[in-house]
Design brief:
Blueprint: E1 3-7, H1 18-21, H2 33-36, H3 44-57, H4 62-69, H5 78-87, E2 92-101, H6 102-111, E3 120-124, E4 126-128, E5 134-136, H7 153-166, E6 173-178, H8 184-187, E7 195-198, H9 203-213, E8 221-222, H10 228-240
């Protein structure tokens, strides 16, 4: 009897957006208007690529970026929740599916000693070039019209579950914890025995309740959380059953 926990990262595990947090490294902690206005909907990863070029061109080095990223706050109750999951790995497999990048998530999890809690992290691959530029690539190609062009979280989740099945691993229940609009696609893939946990007051919760109002609710159970303590209470009840 194993449960699969799927976490988004920004505004879910950490209480900020890691991509906008890095702007604290920029001169005067802000980006020029021309750069800020260059973002096109659905093309966030390319936009961040330009931000990283700007930072490096302005003398921001890897160690300064790392120092800044490791000051990002965790969401209320999240440190206790991740500690609890880490102590109960016999019940939980745990993955991250995020539109952030491998460098940021790695830095943040390792600094807080949480990297062992997660079995896999699915996010945009990033690395520093020999000249010190942080480069980021889209995670994969997909055909989902609802998702940003670099990442469909439903596709990631489905491929992960298929791979686990090949290894003989299936899950009693999937618990999906997220906040954003791009978490709706995987939530709509969940079955009635699964649970979606949208963060209170954020886009995912609003989109799920909009679907219910339009009389096409999601199939899974929905439990809203405002602090990670709410998630921990639910997980404790699950493993007691």
């Amino acid at each position: 009897m194993k449960f699969l926990l799927v976490f988004d990262f920004d505004h879910t595990i950490v209480d900020e957006n890691s991509d906008t947090w890095i702007v604290k490294c920029a001169p005067e902690k802000k980006l020029p208007n021309g750069l800020r206005n260059s973002y096109r909907p659905g093309h966030w990863t390319e936009y961040m690529g330009r931000v990283f070029v700007y930072l490096r061109d302005n003398g921001v080095k890897e160690d300064e970026m790392k120092r800044t990223m490791t000051t990002i706050p965790f969401t209320a109750g999240m440190v206790d929740l991740l500690g609890f999951i880490g102590e109960n790995k016999e019940f939980f497999d745990c993955i991250i599916v995020s539109d952030s990048n491998t460098v940021f998530i790695d830095w943040i999890l390792k600094a807080a000693d949480f990297h062992k809690v997660f079995d896999e992290v699915f996010t945009n691959p990033a690395a520093f070039s020999s000249t010190g530029y942080l480069t980021v690539q889209g995670f994969h190609a997909h055909h989902c019209a609802k998702c940003p062009k670099n990442l469909c979280k439903r596709k990631v989740l489905k491929e992960f579950l298929d791979k686990q099945l090949e290894r003989g691993i299936s899950y009693t229940q999937i618990v999906y914890v997220g906040d954003g609009g791009n978490d709706l696609c995987p939530v709509m893939f969940l079955k009635k025995e699964d649970t979606a946990m949208p963060r209170q007051g954020y886009t995912l919760e609003k989109k799920i309740s909009q679907l219910a109002q339009n009389l096409c609710p999601v199939e899974c159970s929905v439990l809203v959380w405002s602090s990670a303590t709410d998630i921990m209470s639910y997980l404790k009840a699950l493993i007691k059953k």
